[in-house]
Amino acid sequence: MLYWALVFLLVALVAAVFGFGGIASTAASIAQILFVIALVLFVVSLVMGFRRRNL
């Protein structure tokens, strides 16, 4: 998931350099959403791992 967030961020940067504002903003939004999802999944995984060790 983090890989795809980085890919969309790269697409957004390239599109911004070439002046495609709509594509750049859409790709940046997708990258931001994917990053947040990956971060939430990481935190949930971390909490569940600590919980399993304590039981």
UniProtKB/TrEMBL annotation:
Keywords from the named record: Cell membrane, Membrane, Transmembrane, Transmembrane helix
Source organism, top-level taxon: Bacteria
Residues of the signal peptide: none
Any GO CC annotation of this UniProt entry: plasma membrane
InterPro entries according to UniProt: DUF1328
Residues that span the membrane, as ranges: 29-50
Membrane topology: Single-pass membrane protein
Pfam families: DUF1328 (PF07043)
Keyword Nuclease: no
Record carries keyword Repeat: no
Compartments reported by the entry: Cell membrane
Primary residence: membrane
Protein family: Belongs to the UPF0391 family.
HAMAP family xrefs: UPF0391
Protein name: UPF0391 membrane protein SAMN02745126_05882
Organism: Enhydrobacter aerosaccus
Lineage per the UniProt record: Bacteria, Pseudomonadati, Pseudomonadota, Alphaproteobacteria, Hyphomicrobiales
